[in-house]
Structure formats: structure tokens, C-alpha cells
Design a protein that fits this description.
Helices cover 68% and strands 0% of the residues. The chain is mainly α.
């Protein structure tokens, strides 16, 4: 069993990605720094999205009308976390051929992307302001539900 985990992160069967770059320091440095900064950027965006989803009073998660918007923020945060992890793992694979764990991580992120697409398709009527029960309604939020919330233009200021 330890051999299995050893192969996930330190496989001797494959060459590290750096060998494809002929171990050229400039090329290694370029990929190292780029993937590292992209990974950190994705992680920071993820943290911001989680924070906004938790603190945003305009889309409370306990309101069935606004919960889908909050859920999309959470899904995007998970996507950003997954993409950031892929880039950070790319730094690791420069020197350590962890291609199995890299592949499984990419597969997990791909499934999360597909799930997010399905959720987004499902909430399109709410985003467009149409109540699925009454397609003639221009806005699915009542005055009581939006009381105390800011207009989108004021949120962006």
C-alpha cells in the first residue's frame, strides 16, 4: 500500500517534467514562477469568493430565491481552488513525476466544471429575472425579499 502512495507522488517509472525542458534553468524558472504565481492567484481568488459568499447580504444563503447565486459563488470558489492546485502540482512535477495524482486532480476539477455548468443552466431563469412558475414575471424577487439590499450599480461603486 505504501508503494501505491509512493508512486502517486514520487514515481520512478516516469521522468519529471523538467527533463522535457532539458533542465534548462531559464525554462524551468519560467514554468516554476508562472505556475506558482498562477496557483497562488487562484487560491486568493478562491478565498475571496468564499468570503463574499459567506458575508454577502444581497444573496443570503437561507433565502430560496437567492441561494442559487450564493451556490454559484461557492462552486466558482471550488473551481478556483482546483485550478490553483493543478498549477501548484505542476510546480511539483517539474522535479517529481507525480502524474497519477495530477491526472486524478484534473479529473476531479473536470467533474466540478461539468457540475457547475449544469447548475448554471438550471439557474438561468433566475439570473434573467424570470420566475420558472410564471414566465411572464420580469423579476422573481418580491419587494420584501429585496428590502435592505443595494442596487447592483451601488454595490460596484
Amino acid at each position: 500500500m505504501t508503494e501505491f502512495f509512493q508512486d502517486l507522488f514520487f514515481s520512478k517509472q516516469y521522468n519529471p517534467q523538467g527533463s522535457s525542458y532539458l533542465w534548462q534553468p531559464e525554462l524551468l524558472g519560467l514554468h516554476f514562477l508562472s505556475d506558482l504565481l498562477i496557483g497562488i492567484g487562484y487560491y486568493l481568488i478562491s478565498l475571496i469568493l468564499f468570503y463574499v459568499a459567506r458575508k454577502n447580504k444581497n444573496f443570503p444563503s437561507d433565502n430560496p430565491q437567492t441561494k442559487p447565486f450564493n451556490d454559484i459563488l461557492i462552486l466558482f470558489a471550488w473551481l478556483m481552488l482546483g485550478c490553483g492546485s493543478i498549477h501548484l502540482l505542476s510546480v511539483w512535477t517539474l522535479w517529481n513525476p507525480a502524474y497519477w495524482i495530477s491526472g486524478w486532480l484534473k479529473a476531479g476539477v473536470a467533474l466540478t466544471f461539468m457540475h457547475t455548468v449544469l447548475v448554471m443552466i438550471e439557474i438561468i431563469p433566475k439570473v434573467l429575472g424570470k420566475n420558472s412558475e410564471n414566465s411572464g414575471t420580469q423579476n422573481s424577487f418580491s419587494a420584501e425579499e429585496t428590502e435592505g439590499t443595494e442596487e447592483p450599480q451601488q454595490i460596484l461603486k
